[in-house]
């Protein structure tokens, strides 16, 4: 009797370089694939609107990739521990494989599931898949987690080179395993009289993706996202090829210029695991101009997950306790909405916030400017901005989103000097000298229709420095 392998997809919506799927094939038994939509387990943060939109389309793409290989994606919702236990019982799976996650709640869920399966004699294995370096493998000379990026990245570059990406399974291989959805009449062979017949895996019932209501309807605000993005593994690799061919060489020169389409646009692909960091690493020529700078940005993501693993409270709490006494202003609805909708009267900030609203992303340089304006010129708590980005970014990442906001606020590790206040006017002059980016999103800037600035940049900077005196020297 077949002893199927249950492959649990999470933030790894791809078929190539998917260690859990690869090892399931190596195990040699029929494969059952499942995605669990879990927003009810303890500690799990519900997705924002933009990431829900992306997830819907990325799951559609994943189902197509699996179907092309003779596999079927089963969709279930609910508490992950319950769902996995139910599916294991339904399919009589002898093994459950998944790729590791690094948030505290996710790790606790996975540990509990692994223990429950082991108690029933079911093999449960997790795999290294979505970061280049496991967080516990890198430490300072004092045996502590890194808190500063530069020595962290130096340690990464000194470590053994990341492994090469794993191939996607072929349809022929899957058919020999007898996996559900592979076709045939329930018994598959490889055409050889000496090959034993393999019973097909059971095909569990699946929920309807549309019933999860991940897409906006009333109103449908996702028109700009549809114009800007095509989620899915194939689109991710096509974008990577374009970037390597057209933009990698000049990456260091052009990456800070928001009017140029010079960035990799890989962040939402990495967020949902449509592409792996191992694939990015090996697709970029290390000797090519710009490659080192690009990989350093991949390293910044690695650093975020290193911190999330070792300091899980980074998502909600100041990493520097002194900031617990910071005199944040009380936000009013009007002030917050003007920042959110890009009506602050500061053109570069407004351009960034409108780009975010329309496309689900914001150029990284402008993210820093817009975030600095909120926490320093408006003196609003970084968690307010983090929550808005969580809801509106298609690449809202549980590690990077919080770390980057704390970096700008000065409350995190490896923070910029806490007294640094980005001047949007100077930033625009330096990085958008012709006004192309601003004109694309704020065409009314400089006309009578454009609002007056919410605050005076000079005076609000002075107030910020006075407020930051509370944490000076800590």
Comma- or semicolon-separated keywords:
DNA binding; Rossmann fold; FAD binding; DNA Cyclobutane Dipyrimidine Photolyase, subunit A, domain 3; Serine Threonine Protein Phosphatase 5, Tetratricopeptide repeat; globular; 474 residues; alpha/beta; Deoxyribodipyrimidine photo-lyase; two-stranded antiparallel ribbon; Cryptochr/Photolyase_FAD-bd; 45% helix; FAD
What's the structural blueprint in terms of helices and strands?
Blueprint: E1 5-9, H1 19-27, E2 31-37, H2 49-68, E3 73-77, H3 80-91, E4 95-99, H4 104-119, E5 123-127, H5 149-158, H6 171-177, E6 187-188, E7 198-199, H7 223-228, H8 233-246, H9 251-254, H10 267-271, H11 277-283, H12 291-310, H13 333-341, H14 347-359, H15 364-377, H16 382-392, H17 400-409, H18 424-431, H19 436-441, H20 457-468
Parallel strand pairs: 1-2, 1-4, 2-3, 4-5
Antiparallel strand pairs: 6-7
